[in-house]
């Protein structure tokens, strides 16, 4: 259920609200208007340094978040998001539809992070449920009373949450209802809402343009591939050259003829998590009207073992003319990204960033806890990317990108092969992509965080919308320069 966040100074007469006070350890408690019993209880919990204290429902749900001021800025922001997630479950359990945050600590960000944590954890994917209405979270509105809140920041938050929810919806949608064509239609539908120009290349066009990698992966499929171009070009952009985002849009990855076992295939509707991230990010940037020129490129197809499927041993001529020996059809993400990356050069970009659920190796290396990255952008850019990752707690881990890894891609008969050796699988995938870049570039492997089986606080479970908040944060910071 999506929530609307706003500055709502007064509570409405007779409406049921859940209230969360943000206080400091030494705050005076009289403003909370607690009963003597509640106050004693709160004091005892403060002694134990409890961060979120629930005061039960006397007349409404009431909880207090206490700041002990011990954490560094990054950990603190994350702690408040998680606190928001805990509060969200209390509110929904009490079947209340409005949550009010009353910030008595005059914090700059805490109220924002709590509101973000609440709204992100209120997400549900119920469209295939018979009892949809019954299961729907009651929470609908978050009202904020905070010294540092503003309509602008509320708007930012609403746009960010809407973007993350869209990405999650896309990832959670199965391939039977979201094939490559549908994914492109989704881009068109949302693009229109936000003032983004959307163009879709169909199969005929892709054949004419010789998108060899994308067409090869699609050759076992009954549904055609698409290549979607979303462009958001505001009048007063801070950048002369666009930032280009590329997202892996494998709407389903069976592995192709190099078929995956069922246990690795069952979550592979999520293999368009990179596409979802860049689509949602450009949507977020446009709905916030950020003064940044952004382009998103989405190569999309399913990867299946059809009669005409590309086969191990095939040599494929890519969009940029390089010839690739395919030794594993399950290394399909790099095949479709390569064409998109080569195409990106047309924009003479300031920076190209690709996002992909690319390798099991990246997921094995760091799990769901961060984003693996590597690339050729200059150090200053990498630093600002890492700063964004920290701010939203989608932390970046930069992998080595030494040229020795490139040697692992040498083919006996073609310019390169599509798989490396037994080590550094995430890196050789990145090195493969590097062949198709000719501009400052970063590659982000989100195979770990994009789709999770268990519940992880405000990230929810299943599609998480990984990298959306990271990208929006980066574009927001870029807009300020
Ligand atoms: N989509 C998968 C990567 C993946 C694995 C994403 C697990 C999310 C969770 C990708 O297309 C793939 O199959 N990669 C292979 C590459 C290998 C054949 C070189 C892999 O990682 O095993
Ligand atoms: Mn694969
Ligand atoms: Zn894949």
**Low-confidence sequence ranges:** none
Major beta sheet, specifics? 9 strands, mixed
Amount of helix: 25-40%
CATH architecture of the largest domain: 3-Layer(aba) Sandwich
Gyration radius, rounded: 24 Å
User: What small molecules are bound in this structure?
Assistant: ligand BES, manganese (II) ion, zinc ion
What distance lies between the first and last C-alpha atoms, to the nearest angstrom? 35 Å
Mean pLDDT: 96
Query: What top-tier CATH class of the largest domain fits best?
Result: Alpha Beta
Query: How many domains, as an integer?
Result: 2
CATH topology of the largest domain: Aminopeptidase
Number of helices: 16
Q: Say which CATH homologous superfamily of the largest domain is assigned.
A: Zn peptidases
The amount of beta strand, in percent, is 15-25%
Shape: elongated
Number of strands: 20
Which structural category fits the helices and strands? alpha/beta
Topology (elements, then pairings):
Elements: E1 4-6, E2 17-24, H1 36-47, E3 52-57, E4 61-67, H2 73-93, E5 98-103, H3 110-121, H4 132-135, E6 141-145, H5 151-172, H6 180-194, E7 197-201, H7 203-209, H8 212-218, E8 226-232, E9 243-247, E10 249-253, H9 262-265, H10 273-287, E11 294-303, E12 315-317, E13 323-325, H11 333-344, E14 351-356, H12 360-366, E15 371-375, H13 379-392, E16 396-398, H14 404-407, E17 416-417, H15 425-434, E18 441-445, E19 451-452, E20 462-463, H16 468-480
Helix pairs in contact: 2-3, 3-5, 5-10, 6-10, 8-11, 10-16, 11-15, 13-16
Manganese (II) ion (MN) binds at residues 253, 255, 330, 332.
């Amino acid at each position: 259920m999506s929530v609307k966040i706003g500055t709502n100074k007064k509570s409405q007469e007779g409406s049921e609200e859940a209230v969360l006070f943000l206080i400091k350890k030494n705050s005076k408690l009289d403003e909370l208007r607690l009963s003597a019993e509640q106050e004693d209880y709160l004091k005892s919990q403060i002694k134990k340094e409890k961060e979120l204290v629930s005061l039960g429902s006397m007349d409404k749900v009431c909880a207090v978040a206490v700041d002990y001021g011990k954490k560094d800025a990054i950990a603190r922001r994350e702690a408040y998001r998680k606190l928001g997630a805990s509060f969200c479950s209390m509110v929904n359990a009490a079947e209340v539809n409005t949550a009010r945050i009353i910030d008595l600590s005059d914090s700059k960000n805490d109220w924002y992070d709590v509101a973000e944590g609440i709204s992100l954890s209120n997400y549900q994917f119920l469209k295939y449920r018979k009892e949809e209405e019954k299961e729907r979270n009651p929470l609908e509105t978050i009202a904020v009373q905070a010294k540092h809140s503003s309509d602008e920041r509320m708007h930012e938050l609403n746009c960010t949450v809407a973007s993350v929810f869209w990405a999650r919806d896309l990832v959670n949608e199965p391939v039977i209802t979201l094939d490559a064509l549908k994914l492109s239609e989704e881009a068109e539908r949302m693009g229109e809402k936000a003032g983004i120009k959307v163009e879709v290349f169909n199969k005929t066009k892709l054949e004419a343009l010789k998108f060899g990698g994308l067409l090869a992966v699609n050759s076992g499929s009954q549904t055609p591939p698409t290549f979607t171009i979303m462009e958001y070009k505001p009048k007063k952009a801070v950048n002369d050259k666009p930032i280009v985002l590329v997202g892996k849009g494998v709407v389903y990855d069976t592995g192709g003829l190099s078929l995956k076992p069922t246990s690795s295939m069952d979550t592979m509707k999520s293999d368009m998590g990179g596409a979802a991230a860049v689509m949602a990010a450009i949507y977020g940037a446009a709905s916030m009207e950020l003064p940044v020129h952004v382009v998103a490129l989405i190569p999309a197809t399913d990867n299946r073992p059809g009669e005409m499927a590309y086969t191990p041993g095939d040599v494929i001529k890519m969009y940029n003319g390089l010839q690739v020996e395919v030794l594993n059809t399950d290394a399909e993400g790099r095949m479709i990204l390569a064409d998109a990356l080569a195409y990106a050069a047309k924009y003479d970009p300031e920076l190209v960033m690709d996002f992909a659920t690319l390798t099991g190796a990246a997921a094995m290396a760091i799990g769901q806890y961060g984003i693996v990255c590597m690339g050729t952008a200059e150090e200053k850019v990498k630093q600002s990317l890492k700063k964004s990752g920290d701010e939203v707690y989608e932390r970046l881990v930069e992998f080595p990108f030494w040229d020795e890894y490139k040697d692992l891609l040498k083919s006996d008969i073609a310019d390169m092969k599509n798989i490396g050796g037994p080590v550094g699988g995430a890196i050789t995938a990145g090195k493969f992509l590097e062949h198709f870049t000719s501009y400052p570039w970063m590659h982000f492997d989100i195979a770990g965080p994009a789709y999770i089986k268990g519940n992880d606080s405000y990230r929810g479970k299943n599609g998480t919308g990984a990298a959306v908040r990271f990208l929006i944060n980066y574009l927001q910071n870029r807009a300020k320069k």
